[in-house]
Specification:
Elements lengths: L2 E4 L2 E4 L6 H7 L23 E4 L6 E2 L10 E3 L3 H17 L14 H8 L16 E2 L5 E4 L8 H9 L6 E3 L6 E3 L16 H5 L5 E3 L3 H8 L5 E6 L20 H11 L3 E4 H24 L9 E2 L4 H10 L13 H17 L6 E7 L3 H6 L14 E4 H10 L21 H4 L6 H15 L19 E7 L14 E8 L1 H13 L6 E5 L17 H16 L10 H11 L5 H7 L10
Length: 590
């Protein structure tokens, strides 16, 4: 435990700690641009430089380890001037107009420049060449705004193991992007948006759907309905200066009504529907495997996360039969809204306009897939990220935190706590187990406390095994069978698990995969910057939402029973198969 001083403040930290980490412990702020907490420390931007007594040159605090007796100074004249020069040089080639940039007031470069007292561009000169990539439905990449911090490269390669972004060329000619100047649409980009989530500037952002939503709201011929993903209610408050993990469900509903939506519904409704369909699909596969002794595609993988689906299509097409055929809750909602809801409202499907509020950029890609039109047209018309909804509320001059709490509309606004936890890594699995175990045994899943503790938390790969005993007669063939399940989040961890499954090292029956770190609470469309501390707070807020509900199991939702009785018939039936299920395709790896 070396002892050192930072600005004459004594600090004792474990050996191997960097100066930046030690400064955080001492509540001393050091500005950074390329640093990503717990992920990237490369000392590339040089904004975090500090002065170390006895050293000839300034040191990058994010890569400099502490030592016994070290004396560090973070705000000397030499340090301030050096940082200022670094940021001035970044600004000199940054082709960004703050007044019209979507990152205005949410830009780390802008914030650091302001804090350093920079009020003019000291080095006017050649700007980086703008290369605008608008090829994907989800993301826009603008090289002119890029500051070459390489955060997106780290997110794409280390965290997601996708490999769509790399630095190319050298010096001023450096470009961050796909190899050989390809567009993102032409490579293995899964459009998860983790690059946009970590970008400190406006170099990678989501495709903006705000204008198309305003246009629909202003069209008297359109009945505009909105669905809200569970993760949004635990993060939207951050855009209105609330601490991470503040639940704002009721205020979010009130704001959406004031924006002009005809109905405010909940993606949780179709998350409950997903559990019924996906759970019955799993039980059918288990029956074929254990009773009928057929060759069955096991393990079954969840299919809620569109980035994960595209990842499989590119990298593991041989595993496509293992994917659940269920659409995601977002797409189920769109199909049901333009069929079941249209009938209830006595409206034509084409007059129903469906807007999703999602923590995810890949949902924009998902809604544009040609497979997602089983209502007879595009099932979901527009997707707003959490960030976009925040901007839209501000555009309407709504005082968000002063709003009263309001409830969602029925029937598609009624949901269980099991649907809420879809937001968290492990949540889809726990929701499925709650229902499947009760169907098989007639008893509630035995919880360790309020949740299945083995699959909670932020470990990259989590596992649990459940031995089935005292089954209902219909499921007696599963008596004594041990069902192995796994939960994985972030595609880098997913690749590791997939390789173990392919090699036979890992034997599992059911796998939950979420594209983003932490699950949807860490999605690519969430308020920036999502650290593990922020993920943990959002995760706990979602568990709180679940625990406070009387209804905590999907199959107990009375409105789910109602939609089967009035419209769908039964799980995996002809109508539900047509509207709620789909197939996916093999894609090239470039």
């Amino acid at each position: 435990m070396p002892k050192l001083t930072i600005n004459n403040v004594s600090v004792e930290v474990p050996e191997g700690t960097t100066v930046l980490e030690a400064a955080k412990q001492a509540q001393i702020k050091i500005p950074t641009l390329c640093y990503l907490d717990e992920v990237q420390s490369i000392g590339a931007c040089r904004v975090c430089m500090v002065e170390v007594e006895g050293a000839k040159a300034l040191s990058a605090s994010c890569v400099t380890p502490v030592y016994e007796g070290m004396k560090v100074f973070t705000n000397t004249k030499r340090v301030r001037e050096a940082r200022k020069s670094v940021v001035e040089l970044l600004l000199s080639e940054h082709d960004g107009d703050c007044q019209t940039c979507v990152r205005n007031n949410d830009c780390e470069l802008q914030t650091v420049a302001y804090e350093l007292g920079i009020d003019e561009v000291a080095y006017p000169g050649e700007k980086a060449k703008q290369m605008l990539d608008t090829s994907t439905p989800a993301l826009i990449k603008d090289n002119g705004k890029c500051i070459k911090c390489r955060r997106c490269v780290t997110a794409c390669n280390q965290i997601q193991s996708v490999g769509a972004l790399f630095p190319q060329n050298r010096g001023f000619e450096t470009v961050i992007g796909p190899a050989f100047a390809h567009d993102l649409e032409d490579v293995t980009c899964v459009q998860c948006g983790q690059c946009a989530a970590v970008c400190p500037v406006g170099a990678i952002v989501e495709v903006n759907h705000i204008d198309r939503v305003w246009k629909a709201l202003e069209d008297p011929k359109k009945h505009v309905v909105v669905q809200t993903a569970p993760a949004v209610r635990a993060s939207l408050g951050e855009l209105f200066n609330q601490p991470a993990g503040t639940l704002v469900t009721g205020k979010m509903v009130a704001a959406l009504r004031r924006l002009g939506f005809n109905n405010v519904f909940d993606t949780n409704f179709t998350a409950d529907l997903t559990i019924i369909e996906e759970g019955m699909e799993l039980l059918t596969r288990l029956k074929e495997a254990f009773l009928e002794k057929k060759e069955v595609a096991l393990p079954q993988f969840t299919s809620c996360s569109p980035g994960w689906i595209k990842f499989v299509e590119h990298f593991y097409p041989e595993m496509l039969p293992n994917l659940s055929s269920c659409k995601s809750p977002q797409q189920m909602f769109g199909a049901v809204a333009k069929s079941y809801l249209a009938e209830r409202l006595n409206k034509k499907p084409e007059d129903i306009y469906v807007v999703s509020i999602m923590p995810c950029t890949a949902k924009k890609f998902e809604c544009s897939r040609p497979e997602m039109n089983d209502s007879g047209m595009q099932d979901v018309d527009a997707v707003l990220t959490t960030r976009e909804l925040g901007r839209m509320i501000k555009q309407a001059s709504i005082d968000f935190m002063a709003l009263p709490d309001e409830e969602m509309d029925r029937p598609m606004g009624v949901s269980s706590g099991a649907a809420d936890i879809f937001a968290n890594t492990g949540g889809v699995m726990e929701a499925a187990l709650r229902s499947a175990y009760e169907v098989i045994t007639g008893r509630e899943l035995p919880f360790e406390g309020m949740h299945v503790e083995a699959i909670t938390g932020l470990d990259g790969i989590k596992r649990a095994s459940i031995t089935i005993t005292d089954t209902e007669p219909e499921w007696s063939f599963l008596e004594g069978v041990t069902v192995n399940v796994a939960v994985v989040h972030s595609l880098g961890n997913t690749r590791k698990l997939m390789e173990r499954i392919k090699s036979g090292e890992e034997v599992v029956h059911f796998v939950e995969v979420m594209t983003c770190p932490g699950g949807c609470i860490g999605g690519g469309g969430q308020p920036r910057l999502t650290t593990n501390d922020v993920r943990e707070k959002r995760l706990q807020a979602i568990y709180q939402e679940d625990e406070n509900k009387k209804l905590r199991k999907s199959h107990d939702n009375p409105k789910i029973k109602q939609i089967y009785g009035e419209f769908l018939g039964f799980p995996l039936g002809e109508k539900s198969h047509h509207l709620l299920h789909t197939k996916y395709i093999k894609r090239e790896v470039i």
